[in-house]
Amino acid sequence: MMDENYAKACVEVETILENVLTDFISLIPKEFMEFIKESKKEDYIFKFDRSKTLHQQDLMEETKAILTIIYRDFFCFQEQRNEINSVLLENDNKYNVVDTGS
Predict the structure, then answer these.
(1) Which ranges constitute the DSSP H helices of 20-99?
(2) pLDDT along the chain (102 residues), means of 10
(3) If you ran DSSP here, which 8-state letter would residue 41 be given?
(4) What is the pLDDT of residue 92?
(5) What is the pLDDT of residue 2?
(6) pTM score > 0.85 for this model?
């Protein structure tokens, strides 16, 4: 079962893709879009404000993560993808401190 926050994030992602990135939807594999549709929380409502930029929207962290993956995997050239992967790895190392028990 999918985490409720990710199910809500799927609603936000679908709404954003429908409202902002319509020209790019064809670059996203149909299977991925189906996964988003099937995984979303049906009773969650996300209001997209067309008067605000994407950065100004009140988005869940999970939504930002999914959008980052979409951008990295489907819209970027390899050089950009490598840069994003480096930043993601750096952030992961920085914020996910593992307790080694020492």
Answers:
(1) 30-39, 61-70, 78-95
(2) 87 91 84 95 94 93 94 89 86 68 48
(3) -
(4) 80
(5) 64
(6) no
Range 8-11 contact pairs with CB under 8 angstroms and sequence separation of 24 or more = 8/40, 8/41, 8/44, 8/46, 8/60, 8/62, 9/60, 9/62, 9/63, 9/65, 9/66, 10/36, 10/37, 10/39, 10/40, 10/41, 10/66, 11/40, 11/41, 11/44, 11/45, 11/46
Token pair listed for 31: 């299977």
Instruction: Write the CA distances from 54 to 8, 14, 35, 77, 100, integer angstroms.
Output: 17, 13, 22, 21, 39
Tokens, residue 78: 């390899």
Could you give the CA distance from residue 82 to residue 76 in angstroms, rounded to a whole number?
9
